[in-house]
Amino acid sequence: RVATDATWPPFEYIDTETGEIIGFDIDLFDAIAERADLDVEYVDVAWDPLLAGMAEGTYDAAISSITITPDRAKNMNFSHPYFTAGQIITTLKSNTDITGNETLAGKSVGVQTGTTGDDLATSINGTDVKRYDEIGLAFTALMTDQIDAVICDNPVAAGYVAKYDTLKTVGEPLTSEEYGIAVAKGKEELLAKINTALDALLAEGIID
Ligand code: ARG
Fold it and tell me: Is 126:133 a contact under the CB 8 Å cutoff?
């Protein structure tokens, strides 16, 4: 049972035509499963219960653009890193006063609750952090002028900017974060299998 919060395109999201969970992470885990000979059932679960469920051993593993952090590593094991991302600010093209994180004081900033984007926005003094269960809701709020900016992982922001002509990202990513596959504590054999397969996929350039 592999948990994912399928609200994070292009890494994990729902194909609106088929209703299936698709994306980079699903392709990657499918490739790992094939090499490690694992039978996989993906479980679509919201972000908060995903992290809580991993801590409680509800799922065997999770692949969900999860940034490896020391705090999370207390409750779950992580595979070797497979992707580097960073937090980036998205705002409306028409906005001229947001030019970097030092310009976010007094501004309202949308994030997905409990993500590293939430952590970063919360650490910026004077910012009014608006927390959403899904990042899509934050982007909708931005495009309907309810908030001033969104902070999230740069691949997600790039997708929204490519799709919606009124949006732009601001500057360079503000952090450097590594994604890892989370594996429940105690499942060391599963972790080793995943790492072996992942290392081979990395070495073969398949992830590139
Ligand atoms: N990389 C960020 C973090 O680990 C956000 C991940 C959110 N993933 C998702 N599927 N909603 O906090």
Answer: no
User: Which two three-digit tokens encode residue 48?
Assistant: 């908060």
Tell me how long the chain is.
208
* CA 170 to ligand 1 centroid distance, Å: 20
Which tens digit of pLDDT belongs to each residue from 135-178? 999 999 999 999 999 999 999 999 999 999 999 999 999 999 99
Tell me what pLDDT residue 94 has: 98
Mean pLDDT calculated for residue range 192-205: 97
- Helix H or strand E segment including 150: strand 149-153
Residue 148 Cβ < 6 Å to ligand 1? no
Residue 182 pairs with which residues in a beta bridge?
Answer: 62, 78
Tokens of 14: 């729902």
Indicate whether residue 91 lines ligand 1 (CB < 6 A).
no
Q: With contact defined as beta carbons under 8 Å apart, do 75 and 183 qualify?
A: no
Dist. CA 152–CA 170, nearest whole Å: 12
**How does DSSP classify residue 66?**
P
User: Is pTM beyond 0.90 here?
Assistant: yes
